[in-house]
Amino acid sequence: MNTQSRIKILLVDDDPGVLQLLSMRLEALDFEVVCADGGKSALATLQKECANIVISDLRMDGMDGIELFEKIQQQYAGLPVIVLTAHGSIKEAVSATQKGVFSFLTKPVDKDELLSSIHQALSFSVDRPSGHSVGSNIITCCAKMQQLLEQAKLLAKSDINIMIRGESGTGKELLASAIQAASDRADQPFIAINCSAIPADLLESELFGHVKGAFTGASRDNKGLFASADGGTVFLDEIGDMPAPLQVKLLRVLQEQKIRPVGSQQDISINVRVLSATHQHLEDAIADGRFREDLYYRLNVASLSLPALRDRRADIQLLAKHFLHNIGLRANSKAKRFSPAALCALMAYDWPGNIRQLSNIVEQLAALSPAAIIGEAQTIAALPQSKNPASELPPLAEARKKFEREYLEQVLASTKGNVTDAARQAGRNRSDLHKLIKKHQLNPDILRNAKT
User: PTM 4-aspartylphosphate: at which residues (predicted)?
Assistant: First the structure.
């Protein structure tokens, strides 16, 4: 199924002829269209049914397109709005985009330009669902991430142990939680523990429990996390930091599905699935004797690798807008916005701390910005070691190649690997697009065969 068939557009114009013509054009592109003959009618429609995007005329009697947008922003935060006008001006366009209108297009609207704006608005809307049963809370428009979520969805339905790899801050625990939520253990406990955050002499007791009097301070029995998660899932973060003696005991638990609390002489049967995560290269740790190879294979029945944020740059502004939106919700105030130049500065940075670092920077910018729009200079100043991002820019040929690949990934993702639809969306003929896909060694079949 073409993904556009699931997209509902609310079309608003007080000219019946324009409304009918544009509605027919959008329906011909497989969008579902709901029409409203003015701002009040549009707001009434939104109370009765959901829309993925609103396309509104600017000049309308009673309530113009900007006023409609402002009311939509108040009542339906995150719903993208595209404004059309037959009397476009630079001043109006700048004013509209500063207020948060996603795109400002001049009539007569070019079909390809409108289609491109619709796809971009849907990609960067903070409320857009990912379309995956795994990761509905994972925000992405990156083809690499969407393929990862498809793999996770398949693995979630099995009961095998999974190791999640990725740099610190890439969202390994979030992915583990999403796998649990999509599994048959969804209504059972999900318990996460960071193996590097607990002293080695206490980790065994935390994992497997202890009996009263087992050691100084053990004034009562403690079930431990594995017993507490019985029937559900245990997530062991930073598994590479687990002490060697405890690795032996964990291996036994995985083999026998039994635990023995510290100080006890009796085993307790459990039924848990183990998801683990690491930012380390465990193969090196095995070679150095720091990690048991047999434990590695027990934990790594299947593996998922989360890309670094710098390798999914299309998601940077999507995530930044999401974090800023949530900050506004927490503060019960109107959300601030990034200027286009500020978003470019965020996307130019390499984010060694990944999503966690991005979230922290957005929190800082939201707290320190006195204005509703967060600007470029303030954003650059908040980025560590990026006072002069222009000096870090790659050569033009390298930047063009990277952009071309990321664009192809996104356009193929939006068409579920349909090369014909992707070529039409990209404004290229099919053979040219095939050459580009081959050049960048992309595989449309992965997306074409994926189920949502």
Answer: 57
